[in-house]
Amino acid sequence: MLKIIAFIACLAVVSASHYYSGDLGLHVEHKEYHDQPKYKYEYGVKDGHTGDHKSQWEHRDGDVVKGGYTLDEADGTHREVEYKSDHHNGFQAHVKRIGHAHHPHGESYANIDQHH
Questions:
Q1: For the chain, how many structural domains are there in total?
Q2: In 3D, which of 54, 58, 47 has the Cα closest to residue 85?
Q3: Would residue 66 count as lying in a domain?
Q4: Residue 66 exposed, middle or buried by CB count within 10 Å (0-12, 13-18, 19+)
Q5: Are 72 and 54 a contacting pair, CB within 8 Å?
Q6: How confident is the model at residue 18 (pLDDT cuts 50, 70, 90)?
């Protein structure tokens, strides 16, 4: 029954479109344009309990994207990255590593009994 109702509704639409296909005085101008993507965001974490320190930001205006991020690495160094991307130059990143890596002194993994 539902199929019959749908079929009748389709016929009504088709016949109505033929009936009203004349010039109704409506003129629709079609403009083709593309909105230029644009956004801006940033966030950061600074957790003294876990030692998780990081931040990021990014701005986009059309095809030009600029951004950067920072984070404290597990080895004690601090990483800073700034990047830019555009249609002409592609993606370019500049990475800085600040500080000297250090690892806590402790028992070597080679000395740990792996057979329990």
A1: 1
A2: 58
A3: yes
A4: middle
A5: yes
A6: very low
CA 56/CA 72 separation, integer angstroms: 12
Q: Among 43, 83, 86, 80, which Cα is nearest to 61's? A: 86
Mean of per-residue pLDDT scores for the chain: 78
Residue 25 inside a domain? The answer is no
CA distance 41 to 62: 15
- Identity at 49, one-letter amino acid code: H
Write out pLDDT tens, residues 71-93: 998 888 999 999 999 999 999 99
| Cα separation, 95 vs 69, whole angstroms | 10
Q: Is a pLDDT exceeding 70 seen at residue 6?
A: no
